[in-house]
Amino acid sequence: MRVYVPATFADLEQIAVGLFAPERGFALTHRMLEISSLDDEEEIAEQVRDTAAMASVVEYESPLRVVVVADYARADVTEMVGEHPAAVAVSGRVGVGQIACVFIDEPDAAPDVRAARAGEDGRERLESRDLLWWGPGELGAVPGPAVP
């Protein structure tokens, strides 16, 4: 099952050494598919990805949005009742072979991330930005966030 995991730059380092073991993420759950106003599963998956992206900066305080897209065995994924309709609990470590890709903001998104975290209109500006796609073999080349 494909899971969109909110992450930080430190998590990317954990992936490289085989120690990335998140506890939760977001996926195209039955509940999400039932309540979405969209018919296209790819569009719904983008919504789920964007939910994970916002969680990475608001809940995990990443300096930029970071989403690790990983493939889990269905047995390792449990829907979280009472949470966001796409929220899932996950178990086990995520190896590089399970990574489909990683989405990360461009470094110049940092001011919008800070504004979104502060509850300002930065959230809307941040949501209007595209996330950059990185393949699993490119993780070592991901530039770290600029220090303000």
Describe this structure in words.
With 148 residues, this protein is an alpha+beta fold. The protein has one domain (2-141). 31% of the residues lie in helices and 20% in strands. It has helices spanning 9-16, 30-35, 41-58, 110-117, 122-127, and strands at residues 2-6, 24-26, 66-71, 77-79, 87-90, 99-104, 132-134. The strands form two sheets. A four-stranded antiparallel β-sheet has the order 1-3-6-7. The protein has a three-stranded antiparallel β-sheet with strand order 2-5-4. A hairpin with a 7-residue loop joins strand 4 and strand 5. The longest helix has 18 residues, at 41-58. The mean pLDDT is 91.
Strand order of the largest sheet: 1-3-6-7
Between the first and last Cα atoms, what is the distance in angstroms?
37 Å
- The poorly predicted ranges are none
| Molecular shape | globular
Helix content: 25-40%
How would you concisely characterize the structure shown here?
With 148 residues, the protein is an alpha+beta fold. The protein has 5 helices and 7 strands; from the N terminus they run E-H-E-H-H-E-E-E-E-H-H-E. It has one domain.
Overview features:
148 residues, four-stranded antiparallel beta sheet, 5 helices
List the SSEs and their pairings.
Elements: E1 2-6, H1 9-16, E2 24-26, H2 30-35, H3 41-58, E3 66-71, E4 77-79, E5 87-90, E6 99-104, H4 110-117, H5 122-127, E7 132-134
Antiparallel strand pairs: 1-3, 2-5, 3-6, 4-5, 6-7
